[in-house]
Structures are given as C-alpha cells and as structure tokens.
Design goal:
alpha/beta, nicotinate phosphoribosyltransferase, TIM Barrel, 2 domains, six-stranded parallel sheet, 16 helices
C-alpha cells in the first residue's frame, strides 16, 4: 500500500514550518483520533487499519526527491527542509486491537510525541483509519446479515483505485469477509481467492451449454457456472444440471452456480429445488448483483436459498445511508504538559481534554454494558461509581456494582517502533465476530439499533468543566 511522507495536506507542512520557526516543534503533545457518529446509522464501528498505520509511522521519512519538490513550491526555508531531511516519527501510539467494536466519542488512537511529529501524521492516520474502519464496519454488517452463509469480496473494479482495492480487501477481512476476488490482495495479504466467470465467457461461445462444457473441462474440480446470461431457470440451471451430470460421470462434481440478476430470493429457491430433484444437493448457490446488508437480509427473510453472497460495489464503495466516509477527527488534547480543549458553539464538536484511558464495562452475562473514558492518571475508576454523558455533565448514571472494568487499549508503538508482531487477518476476523456477539441486545439491528452507552469519568468531567469555564472567562 502507498506510503509517502507527501501523503499529507499542505497545512501540515506549513504548521510544521511554523512550529519550527516559533521554537515549538519539540514540545511534548498528545492527540486523540476518534469519530463522533457511528457509520450507516448504526450503533458501532469495527476498528481497522492499525497495522497499515503503524507501517506508515515506522517508515515515515522525506526522500531527497520529496525535498526537491517542496523546494520548488517557494514556501519553505532551507532550515525547514533540512529539518524534514532528518524527520522521523519517534513517538508513542496507544490503540485497541484491530477487530474491536468501537463507539462514538471514544479515543481509538492516542498519539504522543513531539508537537511536530504528532501533528504531522494527522492526515495519513485519518486517511488509513477512517477508510479501513468504515470498510470493516460495512463488511461486519453484511456478514451479520448473511448469517451462516459465506460472503465474498468482489469489489476490485468498483474500488477507489488500486490502493483502495487492496485496503478494501484487507479491511473487509477484519470485518469477517475472509475471501476476495482480488488476486493481488491474495498474494500480498494471503487471502483465499474465489471467482467464477463473466457473462462474456458464455456470449463468446454463442451457445450456453457449449460455454458451460468448455469451462467445466478447463476447471473440472472448481467449476462454478454463471447461469443468468439468457434465462436463469429456463436455460441456465437446466444446462448447468446437464454439465453436473457429465462431470459426475467423469469423476468430478459441479461446485456451484451464480445468479447475478433478477429476484434472487425466488430464483435461488427454484434453483435449489431443481438441483435437489436432479440429485445434486451439494451444488452451492452464489448470488451477486448490487448486494448489501439490507438486500441480503431481505433475501433471507423471503426464504432465499443462497449459500454464498458475492458483494462488490456496495462494500468497496462503502455505500449506504450514513456511509461514504467515516467522520473521524484528530484533536490536540495535551501540549507541553497542559490539557487542551476545543470549545465551539456546537457541543457535539467540543473535545475531551487530557491524555486518557478507555475502559469497557462487561456484565455478569458476558455482554458489554458501556465504555468509559477516563484520564490517564485516574486509577480509581471502580464499579458503582457515577459517570457522565460526554457532552452533557447534567446527565449521569452509576456503573453497575457487579460489572467488570477492563482497559481496552494498550501501547502498540514506543519510540517509533512496533511493540508487537502483526496479528493474522483471520484472527482479527474472529475477534470481530466475538465482539459483535457480546454487544447489548439490539445493537446489531439494521434499522433503529440500540445506542451503546459511552460515558466519561468524574475527574474528566470536572477537568472539562474547569477548562470551559476558564475559556469563557478569557473571551473578550
């Protein structure tokens, strides 16, 4: 995946130049990366993109070619370009494991280091984490809708360019979609590859049965036939049954068929009946064509008999109401040892000051109850304590006395170097599945889901109130 120091917004460079000029570049600082609203009008997101983000941070450096280009802009002094020549990320990163269910207003990444290095990486980190978390969330929603059926990622041709296609394949796997049609993703990421043939294969022969026979003779043990080029039930499935018989006579078995148009619930039911009656109950039915979690859910509700869903455009483009982009933000929360607070006219956009811990409360039944954001120095958060709404200190509740509190994040990078080896993608997918099973009842509903509770500790609420009061006193 692309990694370049120039993958940034211009204002990151102008701020860096300003920090250097003002003698502020080496001041210690801490930033939080988080989102304000869950995507797809849902309740949760699936955290993804951590390993690519750590790759970026470890390898961050300006090449001589980069510096030569920046010099042509006429914006920067020689001293600043010399500073960039030796610029590296040497800070700390704190994060939850990939595949963790995460929620609005909770810090995902916390980045600590010099003001220069922690500020500069904002754009790239948001680019990586926002997109991969959005894709992983969409994949998790689709896989949940599919139930026990398999979901394949078919989005290469509709993805946001080659790098986007690789990011989609990786993040979809974190969300539970473990197979892809993208051959480069198979090679680079070790993902299982799946695919059939196109309508053009059938059309090139001019005769559907001849096309099916040719494909079966080429791939007798991996044959999946696309049956809707002309008519799925009147032509495609009957011809596929003929080929299935011929394969069986030769010692092979037809693996499946693919439906790519029409009423997929009805067609899959009829196709299942036809193959079962013909003695081929093992033939799997693959469905594709503009699928998303809502279409898949409706297919199952209407009694569809789909074994495998191939999802392309809607997954790769993160389409859907409340999708398109994850509104992740990256905000300064501490500088030179002092907590920092952004105060705006919109309470939802105010920030939570100071370095933080993130706790998750779990009930006696093993289900998650709520998340609590606390100050890093706050070591006395306990069950039974009162906690507060992130944007309204007048709203509060007590943590259940019998809950368990676990710190959700850990340091993943120190002094610019990883602390742990990357986890296998299938392990991240298993974590995602387990996390979703532990969400409170109703959180997985596609429409009007239960809203997961996020609170802040009393100490953090008090600090925010003090800083708001101070900011108001300083207004002219």
């Amino acid at each position: 995946m692309t990694s370049s120091a120039l993958l940034t917004d211009l204002y990151q460079l102008t701020m860096l130049a300003g920090y250097l000029e003002q003698g502020m570049a080496e001041r210690p600082a801490s930033f939080d990366l988080y989102f304000r609203t869950p995507p797809y009008r849902g309740s949760y997101a699936i955290f993804a993109g951590l390993e690519p983000a750590l790759d970026y941070l470890e390898n961050l450096r300006f090449t001589e070619e980069d510096l030569a280009y920046l010099q042509t802009l006429g914006l920067f002094k020689t001293r600043f370009l010399d500073f960039l020549r030796h610029f590296r990320f040497r800070g700390q990163v704190i994060a939850p494991p990939e595949g963790t269910a995460v929620f609005a207003d909770t810090p995902l990444l916390s980045v600590q280091g010099s003001l220069a290095e922690a500020q500069f990486v904002e754009t790239a980190l948001l680019n990586i984490i926002n997109f991969q978390t959005l894709v992983a969330t969409k994949a998790a929603r689709i896989q949940q809708a599919a139930g026990d059926a398999t979901v394949l990622e078919f989005g290469l041709r509709r993805a946001q360019g080659p790098d986007g296609a690789l990011s989609v394949a990786r993040a979809a796997c974190v969300g539970g979609v473990l197979c892809t049609s993208n051959v480069l993703a198979g090679k680079n990421l070790g993902l299982p590859l799946r695919g059939t043939h196109a309508h053009s294969w059938v059309m090139a022969f001019g005769d559907e049965l001849a096309a099916f026979r040719a494909y079966a003779s080429t791939f007798p043990d991996q044959c999946v036939l696309l049956v809707d080029t002309y008519d799925s039930l009147q032509s495609g499935v009957p011809n596929a049954i003929i080929v299935a018989r011929e394969l069986r006579e030769a010692g092979h078995e037809l693996q499946g068929i693919r439906l790519d148009s029409g009423d997929l619930a009805y067609l899959s039911r009829k196709a299942r009946e036809m193959f079962d009656e013909a003695g081929f109950p093992q033939v799997r039915i693959v469905a594709s064509n503009e699928l998303d979690e809502f279409v898949i859910d409706s297919i199952r509700e209407e009694g569809g008999r789909v074994d495998i869903y191939g999802v392309g455009t809607k997954l790769a483009s993160c389409a859907g109401e409340g999708g398109g982009a994850l509104g992740g933000v990256y905000k300064l929360v501490e500088c030179d040892g002092q907590p920092r607070l952004k105060v705006t006219g919109d309470p939802e956009k105010s920030t939570l000051p100071g370095r933080k811990k993130l706790y998750r409360a779990t009930g006696t039944d093993g289900r998650f109850l709520q998340d609590v954001v606390a100050l890093a120095a706050d070591d006395h958060l306990q069950p039974g304590q009162r906690v507060y709404a992130p944007h309204n200190p007048l709203q509060s509740r007590r943590l259940p006395e019998d809950c368990r509190l676990d710190e959700l994040r850990r340091p993943v990078m120190e002094a610019g170097r990883r602390l742990h080896a990357p986890e296998p993608l299938d392990q991240l997918a298993r974590r995602c599945h387990q996390q979703l099973e532990q969400l409170p009842e109703g959180c997985l509903r596609l429409i009007n889901p239960h809203r997961y509770k996020v609170s802040i500790s009393g100490d953090l609420s008090d600090l925010r109130s003090q800083l708001i009061e101070r900011a108001l006193k300083e207004k002219p």
